Structure prediction request, 245 residues.
Amino acid sequence: MKRYRLIVAYDGTDYSGWQLQDNAPTIEGELNQALEKLFKQEIQVIGASRTDAGVHACGNVAVFDADTSIPGDRIKYALNPLLPEDIRIMASQQVADDFHPRFCDTEKTYEYRILNTKDPLPMMRFYTYWYSRPLDVEKMNEAASYIPGEKDFKSFCAAGAQVKTTVRKVTCAQVTKDGDIIVIRVKGEGFLYNMVRIIAGTLIRIGEGRWEPEQIKTIIEGCDRTTAGPTAPPQGLTLMKIEYK
Prediction:
């Protein structure tokens, strides 16, 4: 058996997230089926990030073990024709037998996109969160500057999440605007369940003037989920890349 790593891009619109489910289509399920067709053996991929239903990715990472003579860098060409058009392998390679995508030191980059227009654009509905009220991007970016660091982000963790600790290290958080699209970009060594979407919902409240930018510092220090903003919808979120150190 050899171990192989895949860089996976997908449109998450029609999937119930990454993780395998019995009665719903998932990214993991589609990958397993395609790999089994290709290699004629049972294969279970291991994903680096278990993205939620409706969330997209440009560079999620998965590994699998298989007996094959296909060179690692050619697997993507054999696998892509077996996958739905909304899932694509961007790169493939052989890796060490003990490589695990979730147990290595990494930095993940997420982007949350907001379509900030008076009226919605139908072609953007699956890839942005439409928000009609004006948002102050400068205030949102000022608020984002309080996020980076190794901190307890309990206030930005979905209720009921089972984790050993809610301390995470965020290395970058910024808000920019390109035309009508506001982009919240967050980079860190790890994220809690729904963390980026809750950050987005909180920054939206600041952008519409409900809170001042420095309020986000108080929210972080309070470690209370009820003090942060709502969880923004999934379709605006994309996992851009995972970098291994």
